[in-house]
Amino acid sequence: MDLNFTGDDLAFQQEVRDFLDENLTPDIKDATALTTTVFVEKDVALKWQAKLHARGWLAWFWPEEYGGPGWNSTQRYIFQTECALAGAPGIIPMGVRYVGPVIFTFGTQEQKDFFLPKILNGEHYWCQGYSEPGAGSDLASLKCKAERDGDEYVVNGTKIWTTHAQHADWIFCLVRTDNTGKKQQGISFLLIDMNTPGIKVDPIITMGLDHEVNQVFFDDVRVPVSNLVGEENQGWEYAKFLLEFERGGAASGGLKAGLKKLKRIASAQTDGETPLINEPAFASEIAQCEIGVMGLENTELRIMSQLSAGQPPGPESSVLNTVATAISQRMSELCVEALDYYSTPFKHVRPLYGTNEYFPGPDYAPPVMGTYLNRRAQSIFGGSNEIQRDIVAKMVLRL
Ligand SMILES: Cc1cc2nc3c(=O)[nH]c(=O)nc-3n(C[C@H](O)[C@H](O)[C@H](O)COP(=O)(O)OP(=O)(O)OC[C@H]3O[C@@H](n4cnc5c(N)ncnc54)[C@H](O)[C@@H]3O)c2cc1C
């Protein structure tokens, strides 16, 4: 197994670095650094995504025929890692990463022609309507129903924890179209225009005081049957396909960037005399995180090597998500500990980069507490830690 990059890989890495030097402007970078939530605000994201799209790099895992750059798995890994290390905002995934692949894999030609270009150019901003009150981990229990009435479905019910629904033009929804048989069998995948009468979006303000998630209500919402993806009652298959995109991806670049931030804070903060980075107990905590990040990076490279050799990713990929989440949460805790009382004047204003309010303490202080609180959700969204461990136990360890 060869974990080193080839000459071509290194040339590509330089190309990505040159692009980032030129295009990752200070305003985008600063806004990202001051973001407490998983995703940056819509305006920042769209500005960055427009630059990637202009270069043909936004949909980096799409097939070339739909606008992808035709990269191999190593190039995808290099691109994600370099973007994270440079402090670029993540791509908002609901359009490009989630519904896009479902549409180009299972959608009609009309759906592909209409939706894919608008996902790429930012005209359509998407949100994901999977979870409901009572249907999160047990997603197949969902009740939001769509009843056929001529050429339309009539949708009634609710979706919850819907990230960025307040910004979205469209929502992709799992809806119940049949109540007979196994609960997985009566689910369909529907694309719904958020401007349709009968849709209401209520904000949910998280304990980090961010407005990131919402509850969406559907009251006799009429949706053309042409917005059904694939076959009626087969939506569970498309839903599972999408989750592979939601749970995949390289994490070590983002974690390395987080580690750099933690070290910067620990170098500047002291226990009264000694910088925390040299204080044995704190230094040991940082070292634990660093060892975890190095281990994770090595595992990611092993997976890359297997993929490059035409082999499947193997069971290692199933554990990456839980490990990455644990390290990320621990680093956000250590940042709070290092900041001490400067983490407590916790500001309600959001986004932090959009305010000229005074923040006491050093320049790295403002996002620390908000980020710590927001990261608690990381072991819940996209499949909770317990559910991910269940998958590892069943699929990998065969328990
Ligand atoms: C910040 C955030 C953003 C989100 N964004 C979206 C979004 O955009 N769209 C969307 O559709 N959803 C979204 N979600 C919802 C997310 O997918 C669900 O929260 C998640 O699947 C867990 O479901 P639940 O909240 O209903 O918790 P539950 O399923 O009720 O779980 C509660 C607890 O019980 C545990 N548990 C449940 N079942 C088992 C089991 N079988 N074995 C062991 N333990 C179990 C869980 O691990 C958890 O600790 C988001 C959630 C968060 C927190």
Notable characteristics:
399 residues; alpha+beta; Butyryl-Coa Dehydrogenase, subunit A, domain 1; Butyryl-CoA Dehydrogenase, subunit A, domain 2; Butyryl-CoA Dehydrogenase, subunit A, domain 3; four-stranded mixed β-sheet; 12 helices; binds flavin-adenine dinucleotide
What kind of assembly state do the chains in view correspond to? single chain
Ligands in the model, by name, code or SMILES, are: flavin-adenine dinucleotide
Task: List the helices and strands in order.
Answer: HHHHHHEEEEEEEEHHHHHH
CA radius of gyration: 22 Å
Structural class: alpha+beta
Uncertain stretches of 5 or more adjacent residues: none
CATH architecture of the largest domain: Up-down Bundle
Protein model, in words:
The protein is an alpha+beta fold and 399 residues long. The chain has 3 domains: 7-112 and 114-119, Acyl-CoA dehydrogenase/oxidase, N-terminal domain (Butyryl-Coa Dehydrogenase, subunit A, domain 1), CATH 1.10.540.10; 126-244, Butyryl-CoA Dehydrogenase, subunit A, domain 2; 247-396, Butyryl-CoA Dehydrogenase, subunit A, domain 3 (Up-down Bundle). 46% of the residues lie in helices and 14% in strands. It has a 4-stranded mixed sheet. The chain has a 4-stranded antiparallel sheet with strand order 2-3-7-6, with no helix packed on it. Helix 1 runs parallel beside helix 4 (73-86), helix 8 (252-268) runs antiparallel to helix 9 (280-308) and helix 8 runs parallel beside helix 10 (316-339). It binds flavin-adenine dinucleotide. The site of flavin-adenine dinucleotide (FAD) has 19 residues, from strand 1 and helix 12.
